[in-house]
Specification:
The strands form 4 sheets. The protein has a 5-stranded antiparallel beta sheet with strand order 8-3-5-4-12, sandwiched between helices. A 3-stranded antiparallel beta sheet has the order 2-1-13, with no helix packed on it. A 3-stranded antiparallel beta sheet has the order 9-10-11. It contains 9 helices and 13 strands. A hairpin with a 5-residue loop joins strand 4 and strand 5. The radius of gyration is 23 Å and the shape is globular. The chain has a domain of 188 residues. It starts with a helix and ends with a strand. It is α+β, with helices and mostly antiparallel strands. This is Putative transposase. One of its GO terms (biological process) is DNA transposition. GO terms for molecular function: DNA binding; transposase activity. InterPro entries: Transposase_32, Zn_Tnp.
């Protein structure tokens, strides 16, 4: 069992006395029952031999560290199939500290605005630069390496663009996409205007004049989406980074973003749990969104571009993620991947 889930089960009574949002309350309710038998069991049977087994059902909550590995593989598989055999960039849109209060109290409308504004910025910059068809994937992260609240959006953007009338792909510069300062300026102006126009969001009295938008080359796209998947589906803090639990205190390891050195942080157990739980996203908020050529509606056009580029490059797509890993499991008796789920028993 995950160390975080064990701590959550031990401290659930204490956390219930705190003022929790409905989303955090639902997350605690789900995760404290994950793989405990409270949700029921699944029966698995091997199609190649007589082996069968019963396993405790998982909660399936998107913030549960015990449930997310299959989702990681699924997302990587889907995104890898969308990759174009070209260079990619990662553009990061950061929210300044004075807006963190809105992120804690009005997360759903604020994050929705962040997605719409970041998408509009990237679309307009692409249109001004080349006028062709492009695309990108936006991914929401809410924490920094110390696991404090730090909302930001990562965009994975291909370097080139597609000219639809000529049916040609134009390669972009492998080292440069868009300048940082204009990106940050437009991001700031548009997000502030969107927040001002929203009926339930109110800006703080003072805001920094300079915001941070980072744009850097990441080579081929697969390493970038693998990096993002670790933060999307492994939970806010993996068990391997929790290095000590004693005296009602939890110590975890992280890498300092400036010095790149390994650091530790120690907190009383309830404070540690709330540090992690503050990153539970509002129900219904989609944290990964595809646009343009990477959107599901552009599948045929994207496939044609992939074939064209592959023919030119005489190579295959860099896909090395497993396919269909959770339709079957490996049988511990005969060793074949023929163990399938044949039934589920729910508690009455």
């Amino acid at each position: 069992m995950s160390a975080f889930i064990q701590l959550l089960q031990q401290q659930a009574g204490i956390l219930e006395t705190r003022h929790l949002t409905p989303d955090i309350g639902r997350a605690i309710f789900a995760m404290t029952r994950c793989r405990t038998g409270a949700l029921g069991t699944a029966q698995w049977a091997c199609q190649g031999c007589q082996y069968d087994e019963r396993t405790l059902l998982s909660c399936g909550h998107r913030h549960c560290p015990q449930c997310q590995h299959p989702h990681t593989v699924q997302w990587l598989q889907r995104q890898a199939l969308k990759l174009l055999p070209t260079s990619y960039f990662m553009v990061t849109f950061t929210l300044p500290a004075p807006l963190l209060h809105l992120a804690r109290t009005q997360a759903k409308p604020l994050y929705a605005l962040m997605f719409s504004v970041a998408a509009s910025v990237l679309k307009d910059f692409a249109q001004r630069k080349h006028g062709g068809d492009s695309g990108f994937t936006l991914v929401l992260h809410t924490h920094n390496r110390r696991r404090d609240m730090h909302p930001h959006l990562h965009a994975i953007v291909p370097a080139g663009f597609y000219h639809p009338s000529r049916r040609q792909w134009h390669k972009g510069n492998k080292q440069f996409l868009y300048p940082h300062a204009p990106l940050a300026s437009v991001w700031r102006a548009r997000l502030l205007a969107a927040i001002n126009a929203h009926p339930t969001l109110t800006l703080p009295p003072s805001l920094p004049a300079q915001w941070v938008v980072d744009c850097r080359a990441v080579g081929q796209g697969l390493p970038a989406i693998k990096y993002l998947s670790r933060y999307l589906y492994r939970g806010v803090l993996p068990d391997k980074d929790i290095i000590d639990i004693s005296d009602d205190q939890v110590t975890f390891r992280y890498t300092d973003s400036h010095t790149k050195q390994s650091m530790t942080r120690s907190l009383p157990t309830p404070y540690f749990l709330m540090l992690i739980l503050q990153h539970v996203l509002p129900k219904g908020l989609q944290r990964v969104r595809d646009y343009g050529l990477l959107h599901g509606s552009a599948k045929q056009k994207r496939h044609a571009i992939q074939l064209m580029l592959l023919h030119m490059a005489h190579r295959t797509l860099p896909i090395d993620v497993p396919v269909n890993v959770h339709t079957t499991r490996c049988c511990p008796t005969c060793g074949e991947r023929r163990l399938v789920c044949v039934g589920v028993a729910r508690p009455r």
